[in-house]
Amino acid sequence: MVDGAVAAMLRNGDTAMIRLYVAACSERMAPLFIGLRAGTAGREADVDFYVESVRDLWFADQSLTDAADRMRLLERFPELEPNEEGITDVADTYAFFAVLTLRYAFVANSTGDAGAAMSCGHASLTAMGMLDQNVMGTGFLDQEQHLQALSVSNDVGTLWDMSVAAGQERFRAVLSRTTRRTY
User: Fold this and answer.
1) Could you tell me which residues come within 8 angstroms of residue 26 by beta carbon, excluding any fewer than 6 positions away?
2) What is the C-alpha to C-alpha distance for residues 74 and 142, in angstroms, rounded to an integer?
3) CA distances in angstroms from 181 to 38, 129, 178, listed in the order given
4) pLDDT in tens, 62-98
5) What is the CATH classification number for the domain harbouring 16?
6) Is there a domain that residue 183 lies in?
7) What are the tens digits of pLDDT across the range 18-32?
8) In degrees, to the nearest 5, what angle opens at C-alpha 105 toward C-alphas 121 and 156?
9) Residue 169 and residue 10: Cα distance in Å, rounded?
């Protein structure tokens, strides 16, 4: 769950704060989609779309004029299409959470809805909680909570840099779970 203080700030904040919050959440989750889907046959356009969308979310002073179109396109991603087997693969699991985060970011960006922003944050927190359980000695959940609090504060000067670095660190951790070592 999103921290109570962060949730209160989102409920009482303006739409620019909500947009910044979801942009930062999406940025931190981006490598989990981009890195895990790059080079996958037939997914090149999806990766490009994801990159462009996260970039565009950072223009937090205005909503995306085509958010509804972007959401329709995103909802056709395989990660959001139900299947009978569910998600069992490590890469598929984290790519799913990255896509889900972006989906909620589109809603929050276009509507300014604090509930959608909290759903965006919750998707990120859930993924990081899972990652902490699967990679020993990490603190990704605590890091995500800290960065979410930073994204609703007035001290957001290094938020983009911190979000990029956190996303890269997460990708490396997930990648370590997907590769097999041979000795």
Assistant:
1) 53, 54, 57, 101, 102, 105, 120
2) 28
3) 21, 25, 10
4) 999 999 999 999 999 999 987 777 787 889 999 999 9
5) 1.20.1590
6) no
7) 999 999 999 999 999
8) 65
9) 26
| Any domain includes 128 | yes
pTM: 0.93
Q: Biggest alpha carbon distance in the chain?
A: 55
Q: How far apart are CA 144 and CA 116, in angstroms?
A: 17
Residue 151 inside a domain? The answer is yes
In eight-state DSSP terms, residue 154 is: S
Distance CA 97, CA 80 (A): 9
Note down the domain range covering 126.
Answer: 4-178
**What whole-number distance in Å separates Cα of residue 102 and Cα of residue 58?**
12
In a domain, 145, yes or no: yes
| Total residues found in the chain within this entry | 183
Total domains present in the chain: 1
Residue 10 CB: number of other CB atoms within 10 A? 26
Phi first, then psi, for residue 6 (nearest 5°) are -65, -45
